[in-house]
Design the sequence.
């Protein structure tokens, strides 16, 4: 499993998908900075932290890029023929995806701040700002990881990039629309967020492994993915 | 040394009601070149996929280098190089990076020297920096073979490796297989529809038809019968169909 993990990290290092997504997100943030959407660095950091939809969509698109390539290129056969267990293969692929998502989230939070600091006004010192951004990042990361694990599970079930992106993006939009429409859902989300996060991180790889082993129909898995998204 | 590196006994594979392999038994002698012959849908790829661990048999026993239990077979499988169906490559990585990545999956570290030597052996020494997606089909086949050879396997399983190659490419591939067999004493199981090519390299044959093994025979026996491989195959097929 350690060998597999090293190979996945090597793949992550060579994966330009992460950096393309980061570049697009930072460019979007840059446009907002230079066109005067934010009046101060604090305001920008606050707004970036609130724009969870952008990062969820980025994770959804990245799931399509990164999680299904081994299936479409059939390179998964190397990991299998070298005697690795299916569960271990899924686990390391999940880790690589989570690392990639974390890199996207951190870059999206950090890089615009570096760009904005010399351009926009600020009332607080840089170290204070970094501490504030780090705190907001640490608090929000589990939610992104949990949502990302759902996208990962979708990728493992469908094993097709376009289908994964389609379902994940559509599911995210639907989830946010429902959450905004039913304001009570937002309260539920806030209450259950830590519970959902930890539950998803623990359970998703396990049932993904079960799907692989037992080769059950994707329908119940999609159903459970959808209910996971709605429950958040 | 064991007489047979691979023995398959009474292997069955069913997909629902469809029978892909019907009580197939075969024995591959150590250091031989075993030609598996059969028309499309005969069950060759299914058999290879089961041997590679990509699919599970419905019933039957596989003995790999003396190993019979599932855990031992999984361990022994690490000594096999596989090239099944189309070349499985990482298209966005360079040729060398493809090799490094597979090395890491196998041993956890990249060995630049070994990767370069394998590229030389397979005739791709100048292509190391080229991305895999930019290679021609022949080069992709060579790269897939390089990946299969990377960990110095005792046995190679090649599923129609010369598909899509030009005549020169086929000849080069044949020479390479012979070289691997004589120099490195690698056992090779190879399936191909080009019987004239198989005739030049194989030491043993297995004839698969509709998921059933019709016959296994050493190449020398066909030679002594005075018929070519193609004639022998036609005869076997006729007899087999009569039998069925």
Sequence:
């Amino acid at each position: 499993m350690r060998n597999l993990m090293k190979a996945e990290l090597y793949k992550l290092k060579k994966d330009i998908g992460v950096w393309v997504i980061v570049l697009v997100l930072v460019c979007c943030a840059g446009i907002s900075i230079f066109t005067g959407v934010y009046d101060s660095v604090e305001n920008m950091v606050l707004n970036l932290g609130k724009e969870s939809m952008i990062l969820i969509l980025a994770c959804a698109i990245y799931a399509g890029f990164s999680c299904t390539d081994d299936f479409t290129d059939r390179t998964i056969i190397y990991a299998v023929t070298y005697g690795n267990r299916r569960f271990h293969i899924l686990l390391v692929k999940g880790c690589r995806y989570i690392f990639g998502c974390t890199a996207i989230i951190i870059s999206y939070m950090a890089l615009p701040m570096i760009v904005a600091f010399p351009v926009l006004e600020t009332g607080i010192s840089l170290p204070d700002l970094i501490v504030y951004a780090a705190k907001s990042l640490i608090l929000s990361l589990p939610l992104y990881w949990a949502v990302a694990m759902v996208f990962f599970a979708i990728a493992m079930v469908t094993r097709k990039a376009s289908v994964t992106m389609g379902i994940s993006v559509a599911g995210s939009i639907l989830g946010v629309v429902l959450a905004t429409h039913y304001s009570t859902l937002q309260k539920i989300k806030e209450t259950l967020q830590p519970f959902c996060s930890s539950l998803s991180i623990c359970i998703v790889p396990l049932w993904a492994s079960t799907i692989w082993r037992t080769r059950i129909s994707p329908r119940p898995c999609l159903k459970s993915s959808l209910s996971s998204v709605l429950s958040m | 040394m064991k007489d047979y590196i691979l023995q398959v006994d009474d292997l069955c594979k069913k997909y629902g009601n469809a029978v892909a392999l019907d009580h197939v038994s075969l024995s591959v002698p150590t250091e031989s070149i075993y030609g598996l012959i059969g028309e499309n849908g005969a069950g060759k790829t299914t058999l290879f996929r089961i041997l590679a661990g990509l699919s599970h048999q419905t019933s039957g026993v596989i003995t790999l280098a003396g190993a019979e239990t599932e855990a031992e077979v999984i361990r022994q499988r690490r000594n096999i190089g596989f090239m099944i169906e189309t070349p499985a490559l990482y298209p966005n990585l360079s040729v060398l990076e493809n090799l490094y990545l597979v090395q890491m999956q196998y041993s956890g570290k990249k060995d630049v020297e070994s990767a370069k030597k394998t590229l030389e052996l397979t005739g791709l020494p100048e292509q190391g920096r080229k991305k895999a997606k930019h290679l021609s089909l022949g080069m992709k086949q060579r790269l897939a073979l390089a990946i299969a050879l990377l960990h110095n396997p005792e046995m190679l399983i090649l599923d129609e490796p010369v598909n899509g190659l030009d005549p020169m490419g086929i000849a080069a591939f044949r020479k390479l297989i012979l070289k691997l067999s004589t120099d490195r004493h690698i056992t090779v199981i190879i399936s191909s529809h080009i019987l004239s090519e198989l005739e030049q390299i194989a030491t043993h044959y297995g004839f698969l038809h509709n998921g059933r093994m019709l016959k296994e025979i050493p190449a020398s026996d066909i030679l002594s019968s005075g018929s070519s491989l193609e004639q022998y195959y036609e005869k076997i097929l006729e007899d087999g169909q009569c039998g069925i």
